[in-house]
């Protein structure tokens, strides 16, 4: 059992455990550059990506979610009776009615626990964060019955052949939430921005592939950083610095974690936070080298000026290495994981930082989902994270994957295209590379019902 759970008023609600699952295969982005015939560094430097997770026809949203939940329960000695709330955030929809959460309830059968609230939540890459907020709200509400909440953020990010394909990936995160946690969410400071845009969407229900305007989507991401971060600084300062006239700045956060569509996008976003700080205090001498860009303010031109973008990335270069890069190991080696992305980045940070580096530190998090929905929020590490490091082992697990050639990667993508909505189908991909404890698809019957086995 993780933590001390009882029916008293919950305090220090936050994260007790994290579990990360990624596919067993990957393609090297340098090799993919050569295969695609693009300039050297286009993916590795231009996007900040090193490797990308690859799925074959054995894996779907149900299988990766089953894997990450069962692994978390086993590693932390939980009983399924301990869980009273389960919600799944995903945009990898394989059924327009039946939720992934109901599939996960098969894991609860032996325990006899069917009293579990929550279903699936969908909005592009934001669904996992919305599910976390719902789980936190449940624990803090009058509906809480003393048990733990579990959130699954999981997706398979696939793109059609073309410039967006290298920004794919796949992953799943399980997040165990309850009171008396070592990672505690700050209350009353969440800052959200939502609006109606067409930067990325999936209207073709027979395809995994989205319709995406990559450049416009990047602009929408940065606009949401502006809106959420500027509001967060006001809410945070009012709650935690009521007697100070100075708003919190990005430098006051010990670490910053972002939704990582690409790692280069994260670097741009961190620079934009500093730009927001400068606009609040443009005469401060620390901004002398970039003060000229204050003239743009929040104008439309500020989102398209490459000089501003490069200047702020250069201005924050050292802080970026210290406060952001520790969170990007999974992102650069797995790729975009949609709903799981920001939580995989948090997992990378927590699994790599020592207690000395992370204890009593505050982490700012930015989650973005196209269409769009975004929130900036924060948490504080108030107890040892040794258990997270012991169980996650992200670097070790990633090192044990199997590399596939770009040619084989292309073949696997074609296989997924051709079999995406088949019935009466038995997957053909080899299961020998799957890690121990991985669920995989064994059959889709004539009524589209899916069955799974575990290695």
Automatic annotation (TrEMBL):
Pfam families: HMG_CoA_synt_C (PF08540), HMG_CoA_synt_N (PF01154)
Location of the Hydroxymethylglutaryl-coenzyme A synthase C-terminal domain: 183-454
Keywords assigned by UniProt, alphabetized: Transferase
Example GO BP: farnesyl diphosphate biosynthetic process, mevalonate pathway
Domain Hydroxymethylglutaryl-coenzyme A synthase N-terminal: residue ranges: 10-182
GO molecular function, one term: hydroxymethylglutaryl-CoA synthase activity
EC number: 2.3.3.10
Active site per the UniProt annotation: 91, 125, 259
Catalytic activity: acetoacetyl-CoA + acetyl-CoA + H2O = (3S)-3-hydroxy-3-methylglutaryl-CoA + CoA + H(+)
Presence of keyword Transferase: yes
Residues that coordinate or bind CoA: 217, 264, 268
InterPro entries from the UniProt entry: HMG_CoA_synt_AS (IPR000590), HMG_CoA_synt_C_dom (IPR013746), HMG_CoA_synth_N (IPR013528), HMG_CoA_synthase_euk (IPR010122), Thiolase-like (IPR016039)
Similarity comment: Belongs to the thiolase-like superfamily. HMG-CoA synthase family.
Primary role: Catalyzes the condensation of acetyl-CoA with acetoacetyl-CoA to form HMG-CoA.
Annotated NCBIfam families: HMG-CoA-S_euk
PANTHER family: 3-HYDROXY-3-METHYLGLUTARYL COENZYME A SYNTHASE, HYDROXYMETHYLGLUTARYL-COA SYNTHASE
Protein name: Hydroxymethylglutaryl-CoA synthase
Organism: Linnemannia gamsii
Taxonomic lineage from the root: Eukaryota, Fungi, Fungi incertae sedis, Mucoromycota, Mortierellomycotina
Name of the coding gene: HMGCS1_2
């Amino acid at each position: 059992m993780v933590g001390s759970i009882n029916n008293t008023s919950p305090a220090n609600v936050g994260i007790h455990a994290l579990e990360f699952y990624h596919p067993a295969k990957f393609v090297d982005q340098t090799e993919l550059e050569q295969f695609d015939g693009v300039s050297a560094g286009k993916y590795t430097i231009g996007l900040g990506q090193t490797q990308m997770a690859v799925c074959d026809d054995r894996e779907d949203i149900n299988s990766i979610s089953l894997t990450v939940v069962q692994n978390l329960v086993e590693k932390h000695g939980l009983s399924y009776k301990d869980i009273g709330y389960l919600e799944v955030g995903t945009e990898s929809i394989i059924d327009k009615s039946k939720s992934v959460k109901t599939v996960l309830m098969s894991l609860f059968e032996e325990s006899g626990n069917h009293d579990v609230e929550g279903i699936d939540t969908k909005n592009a890459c934001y669904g996992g964060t919305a599910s976390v907020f719902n789980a936190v709200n449940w624990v803090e509400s009058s509906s809480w019955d003393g048990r733990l909440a579990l959130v699954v953020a999981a997706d398979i990010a696939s793109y059609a052949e073309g410039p967006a394909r290298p920004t794919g990936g796949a992953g799943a995160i399980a997040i165990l939430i309850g009171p008396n946690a070592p990672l505690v969410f700050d209350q009353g400071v969440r800052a959200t921005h939502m609006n109606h845009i067409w930067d990325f969407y999936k209207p073709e229900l027979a395809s995994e592939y989205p319709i995406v305007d990559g450049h416009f989507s990047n602009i929408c991401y940065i606009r949401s950083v502006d809106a959420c971060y500027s509001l967060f600084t006001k809410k945070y300062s009012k709650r935690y610095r009521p007697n100070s006239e100075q708003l919190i700045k990005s430098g006051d956060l010990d670490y910053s974690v972002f939704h990582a569509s690409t790692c280069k996008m994260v670097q741009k976003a961190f620079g934009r936070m500093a730009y927001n700080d400068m606009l609040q205090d443009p005469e401060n001498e620390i901004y002398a080298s970039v003060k000229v860009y204050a003239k743009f303010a929040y104008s439309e031109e500020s989102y398209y000026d490459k000089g501003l973008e490069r200047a702020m990335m250069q201005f924050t270069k050292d802080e970026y290495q210290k406060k952001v890069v520790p969170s990007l190991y999974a992102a650069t080696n797995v790729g975009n994981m949609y709903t799981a992305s920001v939580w995989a980045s948090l997992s990378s940070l927590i699994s790599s930082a020592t207690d000395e580096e992370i204890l009593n530190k505050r982490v700012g998090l930015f989650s973005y989902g196209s269409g769009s929905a975004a929130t900036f929020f924060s948490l504080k590490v108030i107890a040892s994270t040794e258990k997270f490091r012991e169980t996650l082992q992200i670097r070790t697990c990633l090192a044990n994957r199997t590399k596939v050639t770009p040619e084989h990667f292309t073949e696997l993508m074609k296989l997924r295209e051709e079999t995406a909505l088949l019935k009466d189908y038995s997957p053909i991909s080899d299961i020998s590379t799957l890690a121990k404890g991985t669920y995989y698809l064994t059959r889709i019957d004539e009524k589209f019902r899916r069955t799974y086995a575990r290695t």
